[in-house]
Amino acid sequence: MKEKSPSIQDSLKPIVALCKRRGFIYPGSEIYGGFANTYSFGPYGVELKKNIKDLWWKFFVHGRRNMVGLDGPILLHPKTWAASGHVEGFNDALIDCKACKGRFRCDHLIEDALHKSADGMSLEQMTKEVQQHKIRCPKCGASDFTEARVFNLMFHTHMSKTGGNTDIAYLRPETAQAIFLDFKNVIDTMRVRVPFGIAQIGKAFRNEITPGNFVFRVIEFEQMEIEYFIHENEWKASFEEWLTSMHKWCQLIGLNSARIREKEHPKEQLSHYSKRTVDLTYDFPFGSSELYGLAYRTNFDLSRHAEFSGQSLEYTDPDTKEKFIPHVIEPTFGVERTLLALLCDAYDEEVLENGETRTVLHFAPTIAPVKVAVFPLMKKEPLVEKAEKIFKTLHHIWHAEYDESGAIGKRYRRQDELGTPFCITIDFDTLENDTVTLRDRDSMQQIRVPTNKLIEILSEKLNVGFYENQRITS
Amino acid sequence: MKEKSPSIQDSLKPIVALCKRRGFIYPGSEIYGGFANTYSFGPYGVELKKNIKDLWWKFFVHGRRNMVGLDGPILLHPKTWAASGHVEGFNDALIDCKACKGRFRCDHLIEDALHKSADGMSLEQMTKEVQQHKIRCPKCGASDFTEARVFNLMFHTHMSKTGGNTDIAYLRPETAQAIFLDFKNVIDTMRVRVPFGIAQIGKAFRNEITPGNFVFRVIEFEQMEIEYFIHENEWKASFEEWLTSMHKWCQLIGLNSARIREKEHPKEQLSHYSKRTVDLTYDFPFGSSELYGLAYRTNFDLSRHAEFSGQSLEYTDPDTKEKFIPHVIEPTFGVERTLLALLCDAYDEEVLENGETRTVLHFAPTIAPVKVAVFPLMKKEPLVEKAEKIFKTLHHIWHAEYDESGAIGKRYRRQDELGTPFCITIDFDTLENDTVTLRDRDSMQQIRVPTNKLIEILSEKLNVGFYENQRITS
Description:
The structure is a homodimer. Chain A has helices at 6-9, 13-21, 43-62, 79-83, 86-89, 106-114, 123-132, 176-181, 183-189, 235-252, 300-309, 335-346, 381-395, 408-418, 428-433, 454-461, 464-468; strands at residues 25-27, 39-41, 67-70, 91-96, 103-105, 149-152, 156-160, 166-170, 196-205, 220-230, 260-264, 276-284, 287-298, 315-316, 323-324, 327-334, 347-351, 357-361, 372-376, 400-402, 422-426, 435-440, 446-450. Chain A is an alpha+beta fold. In chain A, a hairpin with a 5-residue loop joins strand 7 (156-160) and strand 8 (166-170). The radius of gyration of chain A is 26 Å and the shape is globular.
């Protein structure tokens, strides 16, 4: 794929506008003036999201022999988050401007003003930095801040318990812990043997105050996570194998590999639970940022849950009889970030020979919300009838659209903006010789194909084989 | 399908036990002793749930011409719930036993003790009833209650806003309102014309204190909802059409129609927004209870959101130029209740000719978590190799399982408990004449079929046609 012009690369604006205009993504609660960093996925957004999730499930769960799925609750026992370390450690340092009441992450304030890292600073040190350097409020310019204070990123709520008390509960900030909580149930009820993985797709919530770069950072989002349970001995090989598998996934959904980079977390910046973490970053218009993560979590989580619950979370190897708490490799994927990367990758404004500009989404067929659109050349009876018939046949197999209104060129442009790989036009020749025009989104070339060959030709072009060949690889 | 024995019909116990034992449903946060009414869907439960949701989407969204999907946030602007009436009216009357601290719904307490309805009673009246009749605590027997008080069923949380204030936000108690909030975005960006519908699948949360009958009543659950926007004139016809469509859905997933009833809500019990509501109830082991709901909501919701937001939510008919706020027919489906009804419907303990009992789930192939299982008769090389090859071919098309361990009879029983419609056994004859044994779950009959006919025979037996014929009906 050719590189886009710098002006498009540098800004999310045209993508945000297209998403709104064409029913991919709307601002959340827009009629009430919006609400925090929330978004609604419109008719095409929800199809795109579903394609991502379905393909992920097929590739990583059904496509492997040693994987099972899970769907755990958002509201988990509060002890979960004490054990995981989130109650104590999942914090940002916040600071408020006394003048304008603006609220900021203190580390970002220091980094932006003083161009130095606030990593590892205590709250007191941060407050001192802000005061000593008379850092100004980015909103109103005043230098009058509160002290920095800890702010936990977990949303909390209150349960009404039959016991009479009202208990605090947290909205899970990651899906991972729901998997660890059911590790014992899975080994007790499924015939799994280490190494094996448990996969989950579901919502997680973080009380972020940082502006989000569209859907890149949002307060509620969907994660696709795998906890892959291994013997400690095999962690290095397993880590490499998963890294390869994650790159394959990027290929499968059609991301431009030139924009994907591996970013190794330096030892001193690793989370408390991790011995190695690699991010896959994507070159977003706002910079190269984390798309996916791969972490070796050791057996930190299972050990902590064993400790906090008093349950044994040991696994016994059926051959060697060795008992151990499995270690964990965790590949994690954000649905919204995947969707945003796909949009950025696919978006283009092409200047055509006639000087017009066409906006097009070059989605891979694997994830395109609509696979094929069917048009009668004009809204006339024999054409409409034939087009309807072809549409219904194709729609049984792929998600198709039917469109009979407006000039044919406009209908092509409309499908270009939705990223539909192929358009089929039924014209008067169709009634004569039962052939139709098949138009390719990317080359805009049109070929004439017999109606009775359409399914075969589309099957090949929609590249179903690409995906099928990836299955049952291990 | 024949009726089950009364002992099975009257109890959820064997179903709950099977769900745990075979990886369908685990109690939520079980290693910490459980947590409120929450559940985890295990490896087979998550596949069953996914099949339900995917089929629903295909049937109601892709299968109709005038439907679009949406995926709105769980956290909506708080004004949403003021406009919808939930802040004021989505309440239970609770009462606590002072002796044992037990907490109860006051209307249930009165209904159970005095056998009369508490509908329409004020808090004062309820408190008086409890005191005058010296109603006893169902837990400890004491007659010493607090006064009845209002308890809102919405979970609330707190947002950290950049404005400096901390604002309350609610976890949505229904998905419907997210659809109403995006009504304007959808009519502005999609080429829809009334009548049309917006569909959404997503989580909702209710702070219930009532015991739940397994996953029937839970604090977090998934809804599949449609808001179908119409002109007021057409509400009666549209209501009937949707009722028919909901019955078709029940057929499609294989529910026994003899257990489905229509329950018309009497006028005086209708919600404030509804002019007609019909429940589809299912004969659960604990009684006939609401499975699905169909409500004519008038234009209450859109009118209220127009009023509270100051936005115009009028639609202009392109032909007549009439401006109006559309009325709404709302078919609503719970994922967990669907799953529970399917389990209750499918569960059976059959006494075989040899006196043994087999437990079996008679799932319709449309929703069965595993469609086909493949076994080599013995764990011997040529059999295993051939079985692996057949498994991989079938698994590319349907979710299949491979099992090579244990006696063949045990492997059949295992698949019976998972509801797998067909099992294929590769034996020594297979190596001779390339035929395999195809075993039917329900009849337990085995037939010999050529390997190269397997896909064709299974395609027919798995009844793909049944579903395909239902599509694009309107």
